[in-house]
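Batch manifest, entry 17 of 40.
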Amino acid sequence: MIDDKGGNIGTLAIADALALAKERGLDLVEVAPQAKPTVCKIVDYGKYNYQQEKRERKQKHRSRLKEMKFTIKIGEHDFQTKMKRVRKFLTLGDMVRVTIFFRGREIVHSSRGRDLLKKVAEELSDISRVEEEPKARGKILQMLLVPTQQQRK
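Output type: structure tokens
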């Protein structure tokens, strides 16, 4: 028997354990039914259940591929801000797709887009490597960065 603070109470009869849980206004939950004797814990079941669901939701919605969009007319401060975000994603172990959008006649200057992607790759070379080289797909240019082995979690 484990109490609500995590301390070991010892072996108790089921009726005594239920009475103790009811006295504290909490629930008696079977933690390890396969153990001999069975291990039970006094907890607030509603709170426990909520925490479990919250943990599962957080794990389920975490995407492993992030995307950062740039244009060729990006200013230096905006570039540095986006680089901080990309660096954070990579240190958390996510892959990052860097996308450059060409609007209107900007597609004529695709070399500037390639230079920008090269600059991104160089700035992040300490924590990442280029998985997919820059590829042109219509009016966009994309490159995929993956974290190096020691960065993965």
